[in-house]
Fold this sequence. Notes:
The protein is α/β, with parallel strands linked by helices.
Amino acid sequence: MIDPLAEGVGKGDRRSLARAITLAESTRADDRKRAEALIEALLPLTGRAARIGISGTPGVGKSTFIEAFGGFLTGRGHKVAVLAVDPSSRRSGGSILGDKTRMESLARDRHAFIRPSPAGGTLGGVARRTREAMLLCEAAGFDVVLVETVGVGQSETAVADLVDLFLLLLGPAAGDDLQGIKRGIMELADLIVVNKADGDLKPAASRAAAEVKSALHLLRPKWPQWQPPVLLASAAEKTGIDAVWSAIERFRGALGDALQAHRTAQARAWLWREVGDTLIDALRADANVQHDLAAVERAVAEGKLSPGAGARRLIGAFLGSGAAVEEKGRARHA
């Protein structure tokens, strides 16, 4: 029997898509099982979209650029999904989720879909279920998926295991920003765009682009068949946007079969990321771990136990409970 929600997503129903993403983001055990079954049923409809990650320094105008870029794409007949990851409070876990208010025009576009999600405790600039949300958007018929990350930071690299092309957005002061941008994220970039290249800032943007090009020559290319170009654009004036899309199309053409191999490697990477996250969830929920947790945390906080020794004790409690269950199973079948 076909899940009605899967049927709705497959037909491109936006309300069904929103509900499916909410289900995928749920942490309840029963929701997780249904979400996994839902995504598995929809997998044959996925894989045909252009997956583009977009990151940038604070104040560079990511939302404005995405709105202009998304509008350009829908104007060319594409269906665009935007998965915007907002930073979460380390205190409350809350998130503003204000991307729809920053992309008012695109939010009203019937060929676009914007879904903000809180990053939660996930590092790397993307939410834990961003990959599932991306697959659901592809199943719903969106042929371009834009993943807007939290921002440039030391751990802002997980998006590279999620998308085909990683676009780094810089401002007219990019030459100064290079001092604060981690080498790793520069090496991961497939395309660099200097935004706000308009008005009095245009000369500064041109100088910044030249400095970034010089910096790129010091880095090892990510792909043997592709040298990341540095482009100028103005999201406010909607100039240079067509050149960005042309570069993305050239990139996809240059990679050819290597792009599918890249996606295969990404799937493996996300498998092991999910294995790690699932094991941590299971460890936290384990009765033996919960029994020892308060004492171990207190001993570590008081300096009586090292964090490494505390971790091994909790893992030992977790593995011991698994061994006990296995022993009971053998006894039952004896």
